[in-house]
Design brief:
Layout lengths: L18 E2 L5 H11 L9 H6 L9 H13 L7 E8 L11 H8 L1 E13 L2 E12 L4 E11 L3
Antiparallel strand pairs: 1-3, 2-5, 3-4, 4-5
Length: 153
Amino acid sequence: MAKEIYFEDINIGDAMPAFTSDPLTRTHLVRYAGASGDFNPLHHDETFVTMFGMPRVIAHGMLIMGITSRAITEWIDNKCLKNFKVRFSGMTEPADLVDIENTKARATITVTGNVVKKFAEGGENRIQCDIQAVDALGGVKLTGSFIAALPSK
């Protein structure tokens, strides 16, 4: 749960706390598909993905975005968020399908970010933070940013 952060305590260049997920498994994909209704065969059907030359199923992009939003809201209370946008950059394979050591690294997502702007808008004090989600091997899964309105002291 996010603790209250004040506008005056944040500076341009400050880093948000890094957040690292557990390794994603096929079970995570099944749970996410059920919760989201996204049953695209790219996320569960090995035969389907091999027809497209892919070695194995991949995680839902929106699942990675959800992990990213969790990282943000563990730092900034979700009621403060004004805008959140991402651009997907890479696919994430579940950890339980192939070479466990190498794939576990790829399936663990770490979200980091830095404050790039402080400004006032609409009578609120806001920050903009650029973010990225990467696997443990450095593969970028998504980049983006969010804007949050923070209370003043």
